[in-house]
Amino acid sequence: MSDSSDPGPSRPATTVGLWARDPDTYWASIDQAVADAGLDAPVLALDRAALEHNAGDLLRRSAGVPIRVASKSVRVRSVIADLVARNGFQGVLAYDLAEAQWLATDSGLTDVLMGYPSVRRGALAAFAADEVATTRVTVLVDSVDHLDVIDSVAPADARPPIRVAIDLDASYRLLGGRVHIGVRRSPVHSRRDALDLARTIVARKGFDLVGVMSYEAQVAGVADAVAGKTVVNRAVSAMQRRSMAELRRRRGRVIDELRRLTDLEFVNGGGTGSLEETARDRSVTDIAAGSGLFGGHLFDGYRRFRPAPALAFGLDVVRRPSPGIVTCAGGGWIASGPPAADRLPKPVWPSGFEFVGTEAAGEVQTPLRGPAADRISVGDRVWFRHTKSGEVCERAREVAIIDRDAAGRAVVSEVVPTYRGEGRCFL
Length: 427
What we know:
- It is a single chain.
- It contains 14 helices and 19 strands.
- It is an alpha/beta fold.
- It folds into two domains: 152 residues, D-serine dehydratase-like domain (Lyase, Ornithine Decarboxylase, Chain A, domain 1), CATH 2.40.37.20; 215 residues, Alpha-Beta Barrel (TIM Barrel).
- Strands 1, 12, 13, 14, 15, 16, 17, 18 and 19 form a nine-stranded mixed β-sheet that branches. The chain has an eight-stranded parallel β-barrel with strand order 2-3-4-5-6-9-10-11, surrounded by five helices. It has a two-stranded antiparallel sheet with strand order 7-8.
- The N terminus is likely disordered.
């Protein structure tokens, strides 16, 4: 992967933005490049020009606050390492402790923050015994219980000090906490909660408190410009403004108090959907983002930005069960979250396809209906956009990188492994 956001000679300016100007031509070019490379479906294709567009847009939106790459939304090690090495990007937000150790040692990444606590005893034992990983990985805790689990696996006298960050709850609470808006993560919400835990960590042998993380999911993960939902969009926007104002005040006070207690190296916050708002918080030193790099269709409903569809997957048409319907092999690559239509992949090319309501995206086969069904043949390919990003890379061993030649023709320039392609399965 290139470390430049300049389209350069291999990506003529006329091709940048083709996904928006002429989607049919764009998707047809991806399909042809993959066909020319002889790659079988299911196949993932990552358009480098679109990825560069998204990376540049994230940096613009973060307004100088470094971006920490959220690995769960990428799961391609070469892409993660390439991004972290660029100006404006800083470190990784990992989702599993064994993954964090692997990135810190095999990939040599020196700043890996766990985005979630871990109590997996085998992973904790391996990590605590790794003198390199323990200097590069920061584990996340939100209770003394997490410290106790670590000590039960590897007592303080028998291991290096463990770098620790506190998970500060960023949810919006109203009516004395009776109304909770946001995700259910950490119990550490108030200034008192944070200080009590911080004092315990600082006083406890074998742990170094070095950071704080908080994720404002009610802003980063909730769309505010969904088509056909004007009233809901207005309510969401109002909630998000008030939530961020409250969080900036609360997080700022907490961080001020913690800095009097210990030297914090970082304060992480936000996500792809909240970059502008999180960047306004002066207590935050880096912002996590991942899904916006590959540009899943979940972000089509956000008012502040619209990422390019950098990653997509192609499925083979294997049946034509009746006029107006074709059936693809595979396709049930469903995103996490509340079960709903927006968690399904989105067929984008040929245009006009929609799922059959009684089957939707199936584990082994996916029927689609639409006018294009009578124009394509068995053996042709249909292209889909994913909802988030992690779900597709867990389903494939490799990704075809799409570049453009001097004439602007899409070509597969390399094929790189996903986590799965490297034999890694974490969560």
